[in-house]
Design goal:
51% helix, 5 strands, five-stranded parallel beta sheet, alpha/beta
């Protein structure tokens, strides 16, 4: 019997793709792609997610050092309002979160997020604050798909793995969750997820 729903955030409930925001900055297609690739593939994001850096401001000099040909564009990307543009709820998928509430299920987040990024979500979106609990990678200094971060969630909230359903868009995270006995579902379609939720 399912009693608990565990949600990944990025690309499940929250947009996590900066490309559309970069396009709004008005660069050529070539420059847009170069900036997107530079930012999205840089290990600095992972370091932020495990809490090495507390905020994005600390990362800007490192991004510029790694990509000196894009210094100007990197500065323009990290305007004060960039999170407002990049971290927005996926409205079409919020029906899944609402359905979990209607069913009376406990709701948890298990997410790879930087400390300042998650703080932004918590301050701006009510549904983040209504969950029963969360484990955020930057708070515990480890990321999915590390087994430890799943165990931290189960142990902290005394959850029985077989009573949990977990939605995530990354197959590696799904594999580890299943190894722990969690009913893990690769999230690809909100209607299919609703059907599985019941």
């Amino acid at each position: 019997m399912i009693k608990n729903v565990i949600f990944d955030l990025g690309d499940v409930l929250i947009n996590n793709n900066p490309l559309e925001y970069i396009k709004k900055l008005g660069y050529s297609d070539e420059k847009t792609e170069a900036l997107y690739q530079a930012l999205s593939t840089d290990n600095v994001w992972h370091d932020k997610d495990i809490g090495i850096y507390e905020n994005y401001i600390d990362c800007i000099p490192i991004f510029k050092k790694h990509h000196p040909e894009l210094k100007k564009e990197i500065e323009e990307f990290f305007q004060e309002s960039w999170m407002t543009e990049v971290y927005t709820p996926i409205e079409a998928n919020m029906v899944l979160y609402k359905r979990a509430h209607e069913l009376g299920l406990n709701i948890y987040f298990l997410t790879n997020y930087s400390a300042d990024g998650f703080s932004y979500l918590e301050e701006n979106y009510d549904f983040i604050r209504t969950a029963n609990g969360r484990i955020v990678s930057s708070h515990v200094h480890c990321c999915k798909p590390e087994r430890r971060i799943f165990e931290l969630l189960l142990n902290k909230y005394q959850l029985t793995a077989s009573e949990c359903i977990f939605f995530d868009d990354n197959i590696n995270n799904i594999i580890v969750a299943k190894e722990l006995g969690i009913n893990a579902v690769l999230f690809t379609d909100v209607q299919e997820a609703l059907r599985l939720l019941g």
